[in-house]
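Annotators were shown the component list below and the corresponding predicted structure, then asked to write short factual statements about the assembly.
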Amino acid sequence: MSAPLLEVKNLKTHFKVPGETFFSASRYVKAVDGISFSVDKGDTFGLIGESGCGKTTLGRTILALEQRTEGDALFEGRSIFSLSSKELRKMRRDVQVIFQDPFSSLDPRMTVRQILEEPFDIHRLLPNSAERAQEIHKLIDVVGLPKAHLERYPHQFSGGQRQRVGIARALALKPKLIVCDEPVSALDVSIQAQILNLLQDLQKDFDLTYLFIAHDFSVVRHLCNKVAVMYLGRIVEIAETDTLFENPQHPYTEALLSAVPVPDPSVEKKRKRILLTGDVPSPLNPPPGCHFHPRCRYAVDACKIDTPALAETAPGHRAACPELPFKNDPSAAALVEIR
Amino acid sequence: MSKRVLEVENLTTEFHVEAGIARAVDGISFHLEEGETLGIVGESGSGKSVTSLSLMRLVPCPPGVILPSSKIRINGQDILKKSAREMQKIRGSEIAMIFQDPMTALNPVFTIGSQLGEVLKRHQNLDNNASRKRGIELLDLVGIPDPTQRIDNYPHQLSGGMRQRAMIAMALSCNPKILIADEPTTALDVTIQAQILELISKLQKEIGMATILITHDLAVVAEVCDRVAVMYCGRIVEESNVFDLFEKPQHPYTRGLISSIPRIEDAGADRSELYAIPGMVPDIHALPDGCRFADRCFQVEDKCRTEDTQLADTGDGRRVSCLFPLGQGAQTA
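Structure shown to annotators:
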């Protein structure tokens, strides 16, 4: 087995926020708090969680857009935090990003052609203008936009088309890894399907690896082959997609899966669901022990004290819950709850 | 047959803007029965939010105009004929609305209690003490923990889910007969969405009000709605009970929408291509002649591009607006 393309080791990103009063000590938001995982070449690795769980910060830290606090992230075996600025620029050719909001991630004062030329300018590639024009025509074609659109400005496009421009820009330098930060969550369903299909086709054609950050379980299930579920800065469960969806081992995953509505009324109207009580706690002041214990229906006293580590429950399947409720109590797997 | 609490006939709402007249809602008709939940589904720009604002008579005017040929009857009374003062009485007590984004719908400089109290004082003539007491009861009803403390909070002190609960409390404060929920869970996380949907359907049963749920999320529709109207480019293209709509959609657009959702329950092993409706929604200022979906339809024929379609009955209380509605056979994509 070859080395993974991306390896994240105990990565921590903490943000300092001022104390409540002038004299009190400053506090920390532990947005990413000790995360480890690895992404192999050709994978589509899904990172899923609710808002505020740190998934976007994790993505940005891996792109070296945030300062890490501790830990390491290795791209092709080299730590991205020890690179010189020259080397970092070189790495950025290999690691690209597609942002969530196609409205704010494109410069409104640049035409599509200028947007697509910028990566070549920055990296001083293809100085020959004829070659460059040809490459840009190829790019715009690959993402399914007509060449005439190259002279247009972002505001002349719909959301789906803008996202296509964003994808073309990410592809320009032939990257190996693309971090997709909620690329379809701002789009309508029919457009979402078009973009998901495009991402899949591009992966095949260009041999891409995706780190796919999302909050929509059905999109992740459709696209990803591995998934990690995050809660308040930590990974609570990680497995192959089908395993995780069919046999969740962490109570949070179980509850999340049961909360996702299914577009089929005959299933949906009969389904029992686990309703989590309360909100996600503030990341400034997360509960001690297992962060999930105040909302967990299996919680015991030990959960309030010990921080559970990710432990293997089956080959390739790890969950951070020592209670392993589903193993100890087979009846618990049947969803007996409100409704 | 139960009572119709709301009847909408030929509702047309236009916006007179620089680029011309944009007809956001184009002659739609539907009704709502007592106690039922009607879903209005559509993508952005389909006119679903303008429909809900028209029902409340909250369309900004100018540039918005509800054409005089439109009729909106609540319990038999045409609200389009009411004066602004009469309308203020109807809003809140007959028909109430919750909005997508509770942060912008609540006033950031007043406490939850004073905003709730304003409604209660105006509509139910309660004094300060009584409205505060009723406010606490309402917050308790919608499941806000510690309501005696929370009533003095400002909106920014509440989480997204709690703000939406406060909005619901405000909408319910005068026991409306009709509740319009415009994308009530779109801004929320799935676990909070599940809580809010549960709350709405629980309260609906307790209070017995009829609900119109406006959403783009078909999965949410499948969960809570009894009947569904699908909108496209300002028109209703299909109306049906929720089971038939998902099982045997009759309009190609509905079928396209349903098949383009990735399914969480599918074994994703093959990760095959999703069905995607080609193209995109046409520009509202340059709508095509004939069927507005023609350019994106998989079974389009020449006739579709010239002949306008009408919403026609197809039996079982279903209506579809298509010259070649999909058959009753095994046609699920």
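Statements collected:
1. DSSP finds twelve helices and 13 strands in chain B.
2. The two ends of chain B are 34 Å apart (CA to CA).
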